[in-house]
Amino acid sequence: MKNYFVYVSSLLKVFNESESGFIMELGIKGKKAIVCASSRGLGFGCAEALAQAGVNLTICARNSDQLHLAEKKLTDYGVEVISVCCDVTSGTGQSALLQACPDPDILINNAGGPPPGIWSEWEREDFISALDANMITPITLIGKVLPMMINKKWGRIVNITSQAVKAPVPALGLSNSARAGLTGYVAGTSRQVAKHGVTINNLLPGMHDTQRLVDLDSALSEEKGISLEDARTSRMSSIPAGRYGTIHEFGNACAFICSQHAAFMVGQNILLDGGAVNSTI
């Protein structure tokens, strides 16, 4: 009987009670996180989930109005929130972020993807721009924060990439190239720093209900001459789950990867796509 109560007590340390039932205690309360491009969409979903776990945040975006609105929402969770209005793909923006939070425990890399197109439209400058935003920027930030994380013997880095890493999209050649490059970098670097208690992983979104998806659905609606609702229904039908993902479930997955429970997860590419990518690996 004594062993039973010890077991139950240990479980209660992992789960906390909330209005909706029991939620998992992630063990990262009081940690500091930089969440890039986080005023809305997937970035905001990640910032919100971390705030719910008690993580203090440094967020950034280019639009100051959206950024301040996000800051206000996140402070409602009782955590410290610092907002930095900047372009995270620029050296100036990266410096401003690290000045606001010089020793983060958690880094969430995120940036908007390059526009779609076909091979005949792309010039060298297009690839340089895509690589700079979606490969060089996260690699630069990883390089800046790793020494501090290694020194503390604890750190979590999550890169928001794309399901296109697993199943390249023909029209997204610029994004396919840049994100594949980042994936290769993470594969090697993550295994070099794991012994120091630092994990680096990639979270691969499929179709999530964000403004970008609204824009894509609107374009499909106009192209096919159908209603926006019909366009959304058509695209959802390609997803085995039968719906778009939400920023909240994406954020919760990100927060788990940042938790104490994911310390053995190293260099992984984790799909969150409702089953859209049909692959055994």
Structural class computed from helices and strand pairing: alpha/beta
CATH top level class name of the largest domain: Alpha Beta
Query: Largest sheet at a glance?
Result: 7 strands, parallel
Helical proportion? 40-55%
Low-confidence stretches: 4-12, 18-22
Describe what this molecule looks like in 3D:
- This protein has 281 residues and is of the alpha/beta class.
- It folds into 2 domains: 23-206 and 247-270, Rossmann fold (3-Layer(aba) Sandwich); 207-244, no CATH class.
- The protein has helices at 2-14, 41-52, 64-75, 91-100, 124-152, 173-193, 211-224, 228-236, 247-257; strands at residues 15-18, 21-24, 32-35, 56-61, 81-85, 106-109, 155-160, 198-205, 269-272.
- Helix 3 (64-75) links the parallel strand 4 and strand 5 (81-85).
- Helix 2 packs parallel to helix 3 and helix 7 (211-224) crosses helix 8 (228-236).
- The longest helix has 29 residues, at 124-152.
- The chain is globular and about 55 Å long.
- Mean pLDDT is 91; it is low at 4-12 and 18-22.
Topology:
Elements: H1 2-14, E1 15-18, E2 21-24, E3 32-35, H2 41-52, E4 56-61, H3 64-75, E5 81-85, H4 91-100, E6 106-109, H5 124-152, E7 155-160, H6 173-193, E8 198-205, H7 211-224, H8 228-236, H9 247-257, E9 269-272
Helix pairs in contact: 2-3, 2-9, 5-6, 7-8
Quick rundown:
By secondary structure, the protein is an alpha/beta fold. It has helices at 2-14, 41-52, 64-75, 91-100, 124-152, 173-193, 211-224, 228-236, 247-257, and strands at residues 15-18, 21-24, 32-35, 56-61, 81-85, 106-109, 155-160, 198-205, 269-272. Helix 2 (41-52) crosses helix 9 (247-257) and helix 7 (211-224) packs across helix 8.
